[in-house]
Amino acid sequence: MTTLTNKDIEIAMRAADQFQKMFYATYDSSGRIEELPKLYRPNSSLSWNGKPYQGVEGVRNLLTKMPASKHEVQSYDCHPIPGGQPPSLLIVVSGTVVHGKNTQANSSAPPSKVIDDQPRVFSQTFMLVPDPDATKTAAGEVAKYYITADTYRFVG
């Protein structure tokens, strides 16, 4: 088993910071249906409020049903998982999200059962694993990851 060093934890936290900023900016953009699925692989799993979706196509199918959104991340935490170099990452994010026509994203999606324009608290947990197809990074650099598991849940 690989022991994590302080440097591993520092790199993991930088990766988590970059990931969560990029993920929610993409999720809230008008191009999300094309761009967000690129972060997943065919074997990735997503659970959205208890409903399972599988792989890139499952993510794309969910996004096409969702109204426009605006996420505000209030906190996140990252736990590097020992066993590989770079380590896999468990990232837990919490914040608020608004769905509906008054967001900045494309609102052409069909309406959902979520009350439009009302902020809701969410919690999202990601398991990121190093992308074996990505170019190797130099020591101290943030690795390229993809989402292997994703669980999204409204809290309130």
What does this structure look like?
It is a single chain. By secondary structure, this protein is α+β, with helices and mostly antiparallel strands. The chain has a single domain (6-154), classed as Nuclear Transport Factor 2, Chain: A (Roll), CATH 3.10.450. It is built from three helices and six strands. Strand 1 (40-48) and strand 2 form a beta hairpin. It is globular and about 45 Å long. Residues 104-112 have low confidence and may be disordered. One of its GO terms (biological process) is nucleocytoplasmic transport. It comes from Cerrena zonata. Residues 15-154 form the NTF2 domain.
Write out key terms for the chains shown.
156 residues, alpha+beta, Nuclear Transport Factor 2, Chain: A, six-stranded mixed sheet, 3 helices, 24% helix, globular, NTF2 domain-containing protein
Summarize the structure.
It is built from three helices and six strands. With 156 residues, it is an alpha+beta fold.
| Class by SSE composition | alpha+beta
Shape: globular
Quote the distance from N terminus to C terminus.
39 Å
Estimated helix fraction: 10-25%
> The CATH topology, please?
Nuclear Transport Factor 2, Chain: A
Average pLDDT for all residues: 86
Order of secondary-structure elements: HHEEHEEEE
* Spans of at least 5 consecutive residues with low confidence: 104-112
Number of folding domains? 1
How much strand content do the residues show?
A: 35-45%
Number of strands: 6
Tally of alpha and pi helices: 3
- Could you give the order of strands across the largest sheet? 2-1-6-5-4-3
Q: Mind telling me which CATH architecture this is? A: Roll
Q: Radius of gyration, Cα only, in angstroms?
A: 16 Å
Specify the biggest β-sheet: 6 strands, mixed
Which CATH class applies here?
Alpha Beta
InterPro entries: NTF2, NTF2-like_dom_sf, NTF2_dom, Nuclear_transport_factor_2_euk
GO biological process, one term: nucleocytoplasmic transport
Protein name: NTF2 domain-containing protein
Pfam families: NTF2 (PF02136)
